[in-house]
Amino acid sequence: MALYNNLKVKAYGKVNLLLDIIGRREDGYHMLNTVMQTVSLYDTLELSLDESAPEGIEIVCDKEGFPLDETNLIWKAAELFKEFAHIRFGGKLIVNVEKNLPSQAGMGGGSADCAAMLKAMNTFFGTLIDEDDLCDLGAKLGADVPFCVKGGTRLCQGVGEIMNLLPSLDCGFVIVKPDVSVSTPEAYRRYDLLKDPPRSNLDYFLKSLSTGSVFSTSIYLFNVFETAIDLPEIAQAKQALKEAGALNSLMTGSGSAVFGVFETEEYAKTAAEKLKDRYAYCEVCKPLKSSYELMWVNR
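^ 4-diphosphocytidyl-2-C-methyl-D-erythritol kinase, sequence as received from the core. Prediction below:
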């Protein structure tokens, strides 16, 4: 049974400061070197329980196109957690979702919601499941979910499940989303067609990051999907961010969101003012060391 009447959490998104594909497993999954960074943009999930209703799940969201059934990762996370923890909901578990992170953007919105649901249920039902076990559960639902359980700045390898904590930069980001979307399967398909893809310089990136220098780290930002996808809207967004003062800019994940790195959050805010009329999605954020925040609970 639930310990609380309701509970509300923030599910923070992410950007990829570096993303390279270094091979492919026999089962077809691509092997990655990627550095993921939690950012201060988020969805919210509010959990409540209707004890008068039959055992089940209901997702509520007013975002057009947002799935409200068992295909949603939030639903899948709830079912998987219930099975793993050997619990009963004790009624209908209702999840109200405020969706702010854009879809098909490479910001990990679905994975962030999934990870937040796992952690929220752990609190809601008082099950005290270890975070590493939550990561193992999350890996069954998506490659980015384990990172979204842990958050911060991490080097993620394998298919994303091998993680090492890294120092975080003190900087600001501006994230814009061009009026184009990219599906992850299509991005990988295009990558597989490349004959001689470029490679990242992971060692130099990690050395620069360890110094805390925003300037030198920005030099080594890398995303191999930029070459694979090669959309003019992405290139234009990157250039717009640089012209607005970004030290460097990069597409995140498989796109289509693009972020610029700025020395401070104040510089990022100034740049965003120049870009907000050009892009419907234009947000300022900063690096965070956690991917999840409990906003409040009611007993």
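The domain at 6-166+288-298 is CATH 3.30.230.10 (Ribosomal Protein S5; domain 2).
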